[in-house]
Amino acid sequence: MAAGSVTLGIDLGTTSVKVALVEAAPGDPSGFVVLASCARAARAEVAAQSAAAGPQGQEQDVRRIIQALNECLAALPRQQLRKVCGIGVSGQMHGVMFWKTGQGCEWTEGGAAPVFEPRAVSQLVTWQDGRCSSKFLASLPQPESHLSVATGFGCATIFWLLKNSPESLKSYDVAGTIHDYVVAMLCGLTRPLMSDQNAASWGYFNTRSQSWNLEILRAAGFPVHLLPDIAEPGSMAGRTSCAWFEIPKGTPVGVALGDLQASVYSCMAQRTDAVLNISTSVQLVASMPSGFQPAQTPDPTAPVAYFPYFHRTYLAVAASLNGGNVLATFVHMLVQWMADLGLEVEESTVYSRMIQAAAQQRDTCLTITPTVLGERHLPDQLASVTRISSSDLSLGHVTRALCRGIIQNLHSMLPFQQLREWGVERVIGSGSALSRNEVLKQEVQRAFPFPVSYGQDVDAAVGAALVMLQRNFNQQES
Ligand SMILES: Nc1ncnc2c1ncn2[C@@H]1O[C@H](COP(=O)(O)OP(=O)(O)O)[C@@H](O)[C@H]1O
Ligand SMILES: O=C(CO)[C@@H](O)[C@H](O)[C@H](O)[C@H](O)COP(=O)(O)O
């Protein structure tokens, strides 16, 4: 990679937005340096727009996500932003939002540089959404895809809206993930482009033919006009339509990537690495040999799924719905209980005290199955606590048991023996729920007898930036 090239990476995560400025550094062992990074909690959770979604509905306010993105960009050094020669965007997969062509945002000369503000957009229905019951999913047509359709997947959500809130679809004519939306707004695209990484996470997408199951969807009355066109991950979606926080107009913007694939891209130094990412969710990932093709018939009871990576290769992924969000739920519960008792405590205080207490409590008999959201392969297995004794009820015991439960649940989906069989020799940890939690790290080491090292902070943002650095390098070489 040509020395001095600088790219911007963005990760629009479920809990926080992360950005990173990365510069090619041929002299550095990794080939790059992170010049600057920033993370901002989005705090975007809002009530579902359709009451019929019920308490399982999980939606986010797009304006708050873009506000967090703008705060991150504003915190980066301007003189570095002026040098940016590519923008890579990644984000929380599976989710879906809608907007009106040409009205998705308005560019305003806010402050020192133009920014875009969302306009005719819906809320984002996220991957955590549980509105599609098992009964509803069973009523949908069988996909022609190696991946089953689960609640929170874009196509399942659109089918649900078609049946329960058809009016809400009539106000929009395009759909995409939050990161497809940001790419489309930056480049002024009339129709969003979507990589197979994100298309596969919506369901009803055939990764072999690289196409939507259009016949199946049309026959079921699905609004196929909403589906984005498909483009290669790592290819250019367009160029910035105007200057953006000192980033020059005309800067190439890559087709949006899945946050999982972007994290793996920044962490996985060799094929024998496994990546364990704990962010809002948690994923354990190993790369499949080139030429590997997953079985064409989906198995909804399989705990491991195969997600498209780059150049038609696949990642084997144990994707649990229960990761950092379980700890966040516990913290929120404690803060709520203390408020009910007339005490006000900051969430950050609870996190630090509970992790400190658990670090002192090296073991516990308390056993927690943490699956408050169920799992895609076991939707009815909710959370439970067993082996409760009066001596194991301290904050340290409960936090240790919670962290152990998250890791043991993941291990039950993809045991270390299977990793060994696949030739894995090392585990790379990523995600800020892991990087900020020594107890989780201890439980990872306890469950997975491999050397464990830790990737970049803001790893998906770094990965998205690196994909654009590599693209620039390939262009200069050709
Ligand atoms: N102060 C904190 N200390 C430790 N962990 C935290 C703290 N604040 C949040 N977390 C954890 O980080 C998780 C969010 O990680 P993040 O990487 O921001 O998620 P995402 O990439 O999905 O947006 C939360 O679910 C929570 O478990
Ligand atoms: O659920 C899967 C895969 O099915 C995950 O890999 C998926 O990437 C993540 O759950 C979503 O993208 C959300 O990621 P994050 O916000 O938890 O980082």
Radius of gyration (Å): 22 Å
Q: Any guess at the CATH architecture of the largest domain?
A: 2-Layer Sandwich
Mean pLDDT: 96
Q: Which blocks of ≥5 consecutive residues have pLDDT under 50?
A: none
In CATH terms, the superfamily of the largest domain is ATPase, nucleotide binding domain
**Count of structural domains:** 2
Shape summary:
globular
Number of helices: 16
What does this entry look like structurally?
With 478 residues, the protein is α+β, with helices and mostly antiparallel strands. The chain folds into two domains: 275 residues, ATPase, nucleotide binding domain (Nucleotidyltransferase, domain 5); 183 residues, ATPase, nucleotide binding domain (Nucleotidyltransferase, domain 5). 33% of the residues lie in helices and 23% in strands. It is built from 16 helices and 26 strands. The chain has a six-stranded mixed β-sheet, with helices on both faces. Strands 3-2-1-6-18 form a five-stranded mixed β-sheet. Strand 21 and strand 22 form a beta hairpin. The longest helix is centred in the last third of the chain and has 19 residues. It is globular and about 65 Å long. The model has no long low-confidence stretch (mean pLDDT 96). The structure holds adenosine-5'-diphosphate and D-altro-hept-2-ulose 7-phosphate (I22). D-altro-hept-2-ulose 7-phosphate binds next to helix 9 and strand 22.
